[in-house]
Amino acid sequence: MTSPSSKPRATIPIVPVDDETMVSLYAAREKIQPRSVQGLFANWRWVMVWITQLVFYGLPWLEWNARQAVLFDLEARRFYIFGLVLYPQDFIYLTGLLVICAFALFLFTAVAGRLWCGFACPQTVYTEIFLWIEKKVEGDRSARLRLDQSSLSAAKLGKRSLKHALWIAFSLWTGFTFVGYFTPIRELGALSVAAALGPWQLFWIFFYGFATYGNAGFLREQVCKYMCPYARFQSAMFDKDTMIVTYDAKRGEPRGARSKKADPKALGLGDCIDCTLCVQVCPTGIDIRNGLQYECIGCAACIDVCDDVMDKVNYPRGLIRFSTQNGVANGWDTRQMLQRALRPRVLLYTAILAAITLAVGLSLFLRTPLKVDVIRDRGALARMVEQGRIENVFRLQIMNATESPQRYTISVSGLPGIALDSSAEVEVLSTEVRAVAVRVQIPPDAASPGSHPIHFDIRAMGDESIHVSEKAAFLVPR
Questions:
Q1: CB neighbour class for 125 (10 Å; exposed up to 12, middle 13-18, buried from 19)
Q2: Contact 396, 408 (CB under 8 A)
Q3: Every domain of the chain and the residues it spans
Q4: Which of 26, 67, 380, 421 could be a cystine partner for 439, CB 3.0 to 4.6 Å?
């Protein structure tokens, strides 16, 4: 990481106030107006914008088995993910997914730096979209800078109003889509048209819309630099063989302007012509020539613009490029750097990620789409019935995790002569949770007084692979 001394220091203003001196400890934020850039990595960023947004905005509109394909129905406590129906009892799968995402992030960061931040992070994606809208309304970077410095006029007010109107409309649509993952989106659309949204639906649409509007429209790089924890702990996952955006100081320094036809060696100059375009295109406003900095999100905009400049002055590309610190220091080619990719840290992350992914995948594949909770009837723990038999009453909460009605048979075992004195069959509708009261009896003197373990066995009729065995306790009074 670059030492603080290698960066230009902001001047701390000292303002006299009567006989006292007020020292500001905070540097004023300078608004960043990044220059648009074309190139390989800029194209890849827009590919990721399209992919991520088509998934986010399109997924809630997909149907599966006559219902929304992906729906987290918090009110009914059911989560639909295509053919899967999950319940709160399946929370372990969410934990597994979060662990997989964490180790995937560790792995990708150790290998290729902050590619997630530069190409797929929602903050980057929405900032890219908002900048595109801003460019279409207000013009390119130079036009926007002139507009910022100009006095208020009808033209300026009109452009700013149109820009913010488009930003707000896009943000509200984003909030609407987000809520559409928790409330069926077609129903949500009908409620919106009828102005009949509930208070929580309305709150979350505006809350998420406001967050999008504020983060992508105003905060922008401030989120990456000061609010996102990833930028702070990334140095713990970087090493000298991590692929990052690097500036080749050996080749570029000393930098300086020169004629296109001039020989830089004769002038004692490196290949960097000090055009500062790499700074102008940076969304976080850093100068990559100062070395690796935590503000760098790895978007590679500086690589695209520098390669374009190198083409224009007939110098080789790659003055700024994706490389490793060891690669730059030792002059390694791509093959040599890739050989260093399979180092112990990367292999460990890969092994853990593969093991957890395999475990979660197998668990989902082998998951039984039936869940049963056994609850004792607190009103009558144990009682004597006809012919001296002893009876316990239980309530079975049967959850059908399939999308078709199922008939189940209920049986009990664990004590001599134990039997059900209630219906042994029950029908549960698709994705329904049904409570069934069952009476369990044993013959007199079949067990000593106290608590005895028994097992309820619930099986789907017509599909023996769907069955669950649940343990309970049968009480015999003294």
A1: buried
A2: no
A3: 1-8+29-61+113-332, 370-476
A4: 421
CA–CA separation, 124 vs 436, rounded Å? Answer: 52
pTM, full prediction:
0.84
Bridge partners of 391, per DSSP, are 383, 441
Rounded (5°) CA angle 131-133-138: 90
Half-sphere exposure of 323 (CA within 13 A, CB side): 22
The pLDDT tens digits for 274-311 are 999 999 999 999 999 999 888 999 999 999 999 999 99
Phi, psi of 356 (to 5 degrees): -70, -40
As a whole number, mean pLDDT of residues 3-17 equals 50
Cα-to-chain-centroid distance, residue 389: 58
Residues sharing a CB contact under 8 Å with residue 470, sequence separation 6 or more, in sequence order: 372, 373, 374, 396, 455, 456, 458
Give the separation between CA 130 and CA 53, rounded to whole angstroms: 13
* φ, ψ dihedrals at 468, nearest 5°: -140, 140
User: Residue 88 has what pLDDT?
Assistant: 85
- % of the chain residues with pLDDT over 90: 69
Q: Which CATH number is 370-476 given?
A: 2.60.40.10
Residue 377's identity, in one-letter code, is: D
